[in-house]
Amino acid sequence: MEPLIAPSILSADFARLGEDVSAVLDAGADIVHFDVMDNHFVPNLTIGPMICEALRDFGIEAPIDVHLMVEPVDRIIPDFARAGATYITFHPEASHHVHRTISLIHDHGCRAGLVFNPATPLTWLEHVIEELDMVLIMSVNPGFGGQAFIESSLDKLRQARKLIDNSEYEIRLEVDGGVKVENIGKVAAAGADTFVAGSAIFGSENYAATIAAMRAEIDAASQ
After folding, report:
1. Which is nearest to 34 in space by CA: 140, 145, 200?
2. Where does 4-221 sit in CATH, by number?
3. CA 39, 45, 51, 55 torsion: positive or negative?
4. Is 133 a catalytic residue?
């Protein structure tokens, strides 16, 4: 699959969010990534569906990738779908019935993904992989931006890549947490094709240069 860069708006300038998201897309990003936290499932409180709707109303047409770190998760899925989400991903620990939650996402016209924390086993995929459009591997423990990449996530990415390839389904493999120019090459080599980066992009002085450098590292890893 074509590699996609997904800047996380958790690190954007919320005083001028529409302009900042437009700027990062104009600089070459592919997907807008939302980190939705509830101060319950994770120790932080961030954004809700109104922000998604506001970006759509502002004119953002790029895919919006909503990562739900909330519990219970089913209640808020329809709200994000109506607000304009493209992908909705969730943690299996936040759902009493994982297959039902995946079906709920699809029923509301969105693509569904399952998220795996650093200590969450991939065994869930044995039961639902044929229903998924995305698998998201967390390379930090969720809850805060700007954390350091957990190196053992590379092995997990390789395992997930093998499971996806063996399934023969068209499923994106996303990674989120501590991704930056200096390590994105080895993340790509481990099998990821969708790369979430927050502070590494929004904290840089030149979005276009940073995204171009990331793509160069990804391309080099595929040689």
Report:
1. 145
2. 3.20.20.70
3. negative
4. no
Catalytic entry in 20, 35, 65, 193: 35
**Cis peptide leading into 72, omega within 30 of 0?**
yes
Between CA 216 and CA 223 the distance in angstroms is 11
Please indicate whether residue 176 is annotated as part of the active site: yes
Catalytic option among 20, 65, 74, 176: 176
- The CA distances from residue 181 to 87, 210, 213, 218, in Å, are 25, 7, 6, 9
The beta-strand segments (E) located in the chain are 4-7, 32-37, 64-69, 87-90, 111-116, 134-138, 172-176, 194-197
Two tokens, residue 217: 């590292």
Q: Return the CA Rg of the chain.
A: 16
pLDDT tens digits for 173-185?
A: 999 999 999 999 9
Tell me the pTM. 0.96
pLDDT, tens digit, 9 for 90 and up, residues 3-23: 999 999 999 999 999 999 999
